[in-house]
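Entry 12.
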Amino acid sequence: MTDPTALTPSQQRRLTLLLTYEAKTNILLSALALVYLVTFSIQSIWYEPQAEWYPWLVGFGNILWVLFAIDLLFRFLLAPVKKHFFRNNWLDTITVVVPQFKALRALRAFTPNGVLAHAHSRGVITGGAAMSAGIAAAIVIWIGSLMVLDAERGAPGSDIENINEAVWWAFETVTTVGYGDYVPVTNWGRFFAVLIMLVGISVLGAVTATLSATLVKQKGPSSAPASSSAAAPTASESSSDTDAMTTEELRQELAEIKTMLAQLQASVAGGTSPSASS
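Predicted 3D structure (tokens):
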């Protein structure tokens, strides 16, 4: 994050313009990223280059890509410090520079200023962190399926030729099952596979952790009082009760260990097994 106090007046004005521009366009651009994902999905699933509608859909996707490129260039020109601009905006840079990664632009919808975060804050999307993590995992699987399908379709020896096989392969990969019935054979397909492994496992781990935390919270002890007249225990009383219970449990465990040691010593001395001596 750029420190405004270390900037010249001219740089501070550019920073203000940049922040204002991003605040006004983040939701729109992230929504357009989801629209591009829809067009990319249609192109990948119904791959018909000879159809009349197909070139129009490709042209529409290219127009969106040009808008993303203009946005990146405009923000770069407004940035008061350009040294680490592309590194700090690595997702936008990759999706503009590398055509094979254009579908990853849809991940921008999950950023704190993205359209899905805005919808969640407005109550359009409910369910909290678990719902957001689940949607992120589904998007990663879907985008990975589309990219691998585009890379593998028509390649010699390829097993992944339609969206059903691509989605099945993506689920196998993300969940680390890996039956091996479908395997990428092209260099781009294998590269996408590695990317899905790294990103997908991280997202799936976040989903699992979120669900575990939710279940633990739901199974927590009830804080409701037994009766309206009962006084709530103080913090010191609760701490004392907990310490007393812990001490009693430790004493019981020590007594059981001593009993087991005594049985073992008796069995060794008498040449019998502990079960026989008992």
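Annotation: The longest helix spans residues 9-45. Residues 1-116 form one domain.
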